[in-house]
Structure formats: structure tokens, C-alpha cells
Recover the amino acids of this structure.
């Protein structure tokens, strides 16, 4: 090979360099003569240009170089005798792939600093996890083969454990976390609920798929479908083309009844007069060979699901997961509820491979005598139902919130205009001429003399006053209030201006009420601080909620609305870890659409109080 570089030459370059801190990353097989480039077939590597015949010799020379340097760090892709794996999905060796992700920010500490030590720990952990997930998948595929009498077993990938050699005093800082998600894999999904009886479980499940699952999801309910629209949506989800080297993931959740006919064809009934043939679905899956596929068939009462799996699977190499189950007609939501439960209790910051998820599903469904049919393939690509690390996946939700805020502003202005027309028709022309295109902050005259530090506490997340401000605005404008407060804090620094900005979303009568209540909150705070003879700045910070209390909320909410309750508690606690217990319970109740159930939830805590 003419593209290699002798190790001695590389080390001599480093020795001649005036850099006080040096980082060397080597992604190579330390066994010296073999490298695996994906799959279970080894490809030989010509090592005649290397002056190191063993891994121990190379490590010894690197340690000598480290001892001669003031700051030297070498990150090695694997240990002695191990292989450095490469997979088509990653486009690199697994070590290099996670090295790049770490350098782009995923290995940064809480301050956004990327240090060599943190980078190594990130790469080490991710490399081991990726190979372990792939081996989990292979074990399930092998189990599937044995059950069908196929003795051709896929070998698991041997361990790859990155190493490091470090010498010198002080931490080696490599960079800082930037913006962007270069390595986020495209994830698209479609849910079609074809049963006449609408299911809240399916709606909750779509919320989890969008959130923790990171899917750009389209949802079709029973009463808003046409077969051409469904086929178009299936094609759109399956034929997603990515401009990155990442393999896109497609989720299809199809819920309906199965109908078999005499000529061997079968249909999935997705609504009144809407039928999707098995052959049509198979054809669409065959055309979409560029994506990892997760196909879920939820067909209560069906008896031929094994035939569907045999017909729809695309062989062992194409990364595909098909899960089909037939709940009983008496409990048509049992399968969907099990899916929701397994996903809702998972940590959204940690990925969940389909192999582990399938085992969780089976353990929940088998005691209920609901059999799950599974086909899993893909020997060189990991399929995740939850991708993990979804801190920025909710960007689309933020955009939706922005739209809702815009609608509220327009709505409030229109309401004010209509009220003015009713109160005084002759002012209609004057109002139209004077109405600004963009609302201006309201002037809250009675707040001018209030303590500045006390007002600032209203915009200190976690403080009692912040919670009081949230509750006040929720009562006046609805659940969009918390989002509006966060955006106001980001946009404006001055506390008084922040209050005036919030007031523009209220009608005149509401502004009066808002001003009076804010004055009451601030005056109460000032009196409390004066009584304690402490400076206004020393506002006591609340402690995080007790784990036992969170568990109780989790348990009570799950009992009333199902597994989605766990997901709601996690989301709320992440946003408001320092609320008082009563405020936390009130916010949870606000998330329950059914007012009767919300009241029942509140009552459970009132009784114990």
C-alpha cells in the first residue's frame, strides 16, 4: 500500500514540533496484519512498511514519546489483539465515528469544554455500546433462525476497547461545543389508526414517537383518511433520501383489521372502504432499500400475522424490524399500551435498540397471552427505536410554539378591536388607523415604584415568584404562558420591560388584573425580606423535589391515564425540578385533558395533605 506512513516517521514529526501539547488518534488494528471493514469477513492489511511487528512494541514507543513531551495524549482505537471495526452505516471506523461526534460537542462537559479525558471516556463508552447493541441484534437474529430450522448462525463481533496513553501536567483542552447536529440521523414516521374506535393510547404513543423517538411523524386517524393519501404518506416516509452518509430510519405503525381472500391476497382494512393490500405494502418496502425500517402491525383479532411477516421481510442483510401482534377484540389497545409503556419508562437521553425493546415487549405481553410475531434483520447496522441524546429534537415543537404565540397575539388584537367596536362604534375607524402592525409593550404605571430586585425574582426560574407568575399567566391566557415567559426572558433583559412585554398578550381588563396581582406578589416578597432583615438579593432558592414525591406522582398518574403518565412526569420535572409539591401537582393536572380525571388526580394529593 502506498498510502501508509511509518510510525517512526510520524513520531519524529511530533518530536520536531514546537507544540507543547500533542494529540495522536490511531484507528488501526493492533494485531498488525488484519483489519475488518464490516461484516464478519477479514481483509488483510499489508504491514511491511511498519517497523513495529507487535502491538506491545508500538505501545512502548508511544509511551517513550509521551515521557519526552510536556503534554502528550494518544487515543488508540482498540487494545492488543483486537480488531478496529468499520460499518457501512457509520461511513468510518466505529472509533473514528464517535471521535468526530465527540469533537463536535457530544463529549463536552457542562461548560461546553471538550477535554482529551472527556473525549476518551465518550469514545470508549460509545464504541463499546455500539458493538454491544449490534451483538444484541445478532443474538435475536440467531434465535430467530434457530426457531425456523436455519443453522447458518451469524458470528458476533469481538470486543473493541479503545486505549489511551497520557503524559504531562494539566488537562488538554481540544475545543468547545458548537451549534448544529451534524450526526443526527433522519427519522421519519407514519401512524395510521384504521379502527373506528378512536384510541387515546395511539395519540399518546404518537407523542412519545415524536418526542423521545425523534421521528418527524405524520398521523392519520380513522375519520380523516383516503387510500391515496395513505399510500402517498407511506411512500414519502419510506423513500426519504438523506444528503448525509447516515442511514435514515422509517417507522410505519399500521393499525387495522386483516382480511384474507381466496386467491392468496390479503388486505389491511384502514377505515370505511379503505383497504391496503399486502402485495402493495411489500412493493413499497422493496423500493425503500436505503432506510432502516421499523414496521409495526397492530391488528386486533388477526390470525395470519406470521404470513404477513414472511411476505414483508426483505432478507437478512436489509436492516428491518417487523413486529406484529393481535390483541383480543375485548382489549384492542393492549398491544399499543405495551408499546407505550416500554417507551415511556425509558430514559430519552439513552438510546434503546430494537433488540432490547422486543424483549421488553414480550415480557409485558406474554403474561396476557398476547403473542408477538417478530422478524429482525441487519447484521452490520444497529436499529434504534429510541435514538437517545434528544436534547435538541424538540426544535420542531419550539417552532410550533412560536406559531401558537403568533396566533395568540393576533387573536388578542382582534378581540380588543371587536370589543372596542361594541363599546363605541364611532371609534372603529380611529382604532383601525392607530392599531400598530406589531404590538408594543403595555405601560404598567403602578409597577414603576416597586423594588427592582423583587421584580427580577419573577423571572428567576425555580423561584416561588417565577411559579406564581406562571400560574397567573396560565389563568389569563392558557397553557402557552410558560413558553411565552421563557421567550421573553431570552429576548429582553430588563425585568420591568419583561413585564410590559408579557402584558401585550392580554386584553385591557386582563392587564389591570395582571398588574394588581404582580403588585401583590412583589409587595409580599418585600415584606418577607424586610421581616427577615436580609437584603433583597438573598432570595432563598427552593430545593429540588424529593425522589419519593416524584415516584408517587408517577404512580398515581400512571394508574389514572396509563404509561404516558411516566413520560409526562419526566418532561415536567426536567423543566421544573424546584417547584413546590403543590405547584408540581397542579401542573401535572393541567396536562390531563379529561377534567374529571384531573380532579381525581388532585384529590389523591389533597386527601393526604
Amino acid at each position: 500500500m502506498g498510502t501508509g506512513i511509518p510510525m517512526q516517521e510520524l513520531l519524529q514529526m511530533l518530536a520536531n514540533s514546537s507544540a507543547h501539547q500533542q494529540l495522536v488518534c490511531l484507528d488501526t488494528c493492533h494485531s498488525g496484519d488484519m483489519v475488518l471493514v464490516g461484516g464478519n469477513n477479514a481483509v488483510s492489511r499489508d504491514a511491511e512498511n511498519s517497523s513495529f511487528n507487535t502491538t506491545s512494541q508500538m505501545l512502548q514507543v508511544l509511551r517513550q514519546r509521551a515521557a519526552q513531551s510536556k503534554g502528550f495524549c494518544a487515543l488508540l482505537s482498540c487494545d492488543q489483539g483486537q480488531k478496529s471495526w468499520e460499518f457501512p452505516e457509520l461511513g468510518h471506523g466505529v472509533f473514528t465515528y464517535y471521535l468526530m461526534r465527540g469533537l463536535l460537542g457530544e463529549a463536552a462537559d457542562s461548560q461546553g469544554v471538550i477535554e482529551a479525558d472527556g473525549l476518551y471516556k465518550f469514545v470508549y463508552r460509545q464504541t463499546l455500546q455500539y458493538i454491544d447493541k449490534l451483538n444484541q441484534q445478532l443474538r435475536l437474529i440467531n434465535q430467530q433462525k434457530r426457531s425456523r430450522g436455519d443453522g447458518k448462525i451469524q458470528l458476533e463481533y469481538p470486543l473493541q476497547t479503545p486505549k489511551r496513553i497520557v503524559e504531562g501536567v494539566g488537562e488538554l483542552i481540544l475545543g468547545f461545543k458548537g451549534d448544529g447536529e451534524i450526526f443526527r440521523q433522519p427519522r421519519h414516521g407514519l401512524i395510521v389508526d384504521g379502527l373506528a374506535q378512536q384510541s387515546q393510547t395511539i395519540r399518546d404513543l404518537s407523542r412519545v414517537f415524536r418526542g423521545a423517538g425523534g421521528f418527524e411523524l405524520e398521523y392519520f386517524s380513522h375519520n380523516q383518511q383516503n387510500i391515496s393519501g395513505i399510500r402517498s404518506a407511506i411512500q414519502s416516509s419510506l423513500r426519504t433520501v438523506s444528503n448525509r452518509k447516515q442511514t435514515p430510519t422509517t417507522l410505519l405503525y399500521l393499525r387495522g383489521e386483516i382480511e384474507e381472500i381466496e386467491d392468496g391476497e390479503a388486505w389491511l382494512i384502514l377505515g370505511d372502504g379503505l383497504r391496503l393490500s399486502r402485495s402493495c405494502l411489500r412493493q413499497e418496502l422493496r423500493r425503500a432499500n436505503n432506510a432502516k425500517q421499523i414496521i409495526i402491525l397492530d391488528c386486533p383479532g388477526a390470525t395470519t400475522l406470521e404470513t404477513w411477516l414472511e411476505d414483508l421481510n426483505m432478507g437478512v442483510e436489509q436492516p428491518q424490524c417487523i413486529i406484529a401482534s393481535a390483541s383480543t377484540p375485548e382489549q384492542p389497545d393492549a398491544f399499543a399500551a405495551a408499546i407505550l409503556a416500554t417507551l415511556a419508562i425509558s430514559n430519552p437521553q439513552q438510546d434503546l435498540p430494537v433488540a432490547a425493546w422486543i424483549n421488553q415487549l414480550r415480557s409485558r405481553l406474554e403474561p396476557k397471552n398476547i403473542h408477538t410475531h417478530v422478524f429482525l434483520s441487519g447484521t452490520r447496522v444497529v436499529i434504534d427505536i429510541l435514538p437517545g441524546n434528544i436534547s435538541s429534537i424538540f426544535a420542531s415543537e419550539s417552532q410550533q410554539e412560536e406559531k401558537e404565540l403568533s396566533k395568540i397575539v393576533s387573536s388578542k388584537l382582534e378581540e380588543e378591536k371587536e370589543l372596542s367596536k361594541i363599546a363605541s362604534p364611532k371609534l372603529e375607524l380611529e382604532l383601525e388607523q392607530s392599531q400598530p402592525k406589531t404590538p408594543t409593550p403595555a405601560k404598567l404605571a403602578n409597577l414603576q415604584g416597586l423594588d427592582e430586585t423583587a421584580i427580577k425574582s419573577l423571572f428567576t426560574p425555580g423561584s416561588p415568584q417565577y411559579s406564581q407568575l406562571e400560574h397567573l399567566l396560565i389563568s389569563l391566557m392558557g397553557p402557552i404562558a410558560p413558553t411565552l415567559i421563557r421567550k421573553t426572558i431570552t429576548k429582553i433583559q430588563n425585568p420591568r420591560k419583561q413585564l410590559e412585554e408579557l402584558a401585550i398578550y392580554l386584553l385591557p381588563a386582563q392587564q389591570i388584573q395582571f398588574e394588581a396581582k404582580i403588585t401583590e406578589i412583589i409587595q409580599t416578597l418585600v415584606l418577607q425580606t424586610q421581616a427577615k432583615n436580609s437584603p433583597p438579593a438573598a432570595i432563598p432558592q427552593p430545593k429540588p423535589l424529593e425522589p419519593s414525591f416524584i415516584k408517587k406522582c408517577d404512580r398515581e398518574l400512571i394508574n389514572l391515564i396509563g404509561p404516558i403518565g411516566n413520560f409526562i412526569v419526566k418532561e415536567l420535572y426536567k423543566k421544573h425540578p424546584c417547584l413546590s409539591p403543590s405547584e408540581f401537582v397542579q401542573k401535572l393536572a393541567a396536562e390531563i385533558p379529561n377534567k374529571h380525571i384531573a380532579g381525581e388526580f388532585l384529590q389523591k394529593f389533597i386527601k393526604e395533605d
